[in-house]
User: Fold this.
Amino acid sequence: MLRGIKPGCVSPAGECLLGSSSKNDFGLIAVVLGADNTNLRFADTVALFNYGYSAYTFKEIAGQNQVVQTINVKGATNSTKKLDLLLQKDIFAATKARGTCNSKSWN
Assistant:
C-alpha cells in the first residue's frame, strides 16, 4: 500500500519522487532522483518497492521479555546480585530474503 508521496521537479535534479509504502507491517521508503519524466519517476518508485519487498523480509530477531544479558550488581545482596536484562518490546529487522543475491549491479 502506497502511504505517502512527495513529487517534485527542479532543474538540477530532474523529476524526483519520495514515496513510502507498507506491506504486511513492513515499511519501505523509496527516493527517485533525475527521472526523465513523471511517468518514469512513478515507474522507478514502483520498481524499487517491488525489489525491496521481494529481496527483503521483516523478521522478529528477539521477543518481548527475552533475557538478553544477566549482569552482576555490585553491593547487592546474594539474592539480588544477579540482574536479568529483559527486552521491553519485540525487536524486528529487515533481512535478506532466501534466494536473493548479496549484491546488485546498476547501470
About this structure: The beta strands are 2-10, 14-23, 26-35, 56-62, 67-72, 82-86, 91-96. Residues 62 and 91 are 5 Å apart (CA to CA).
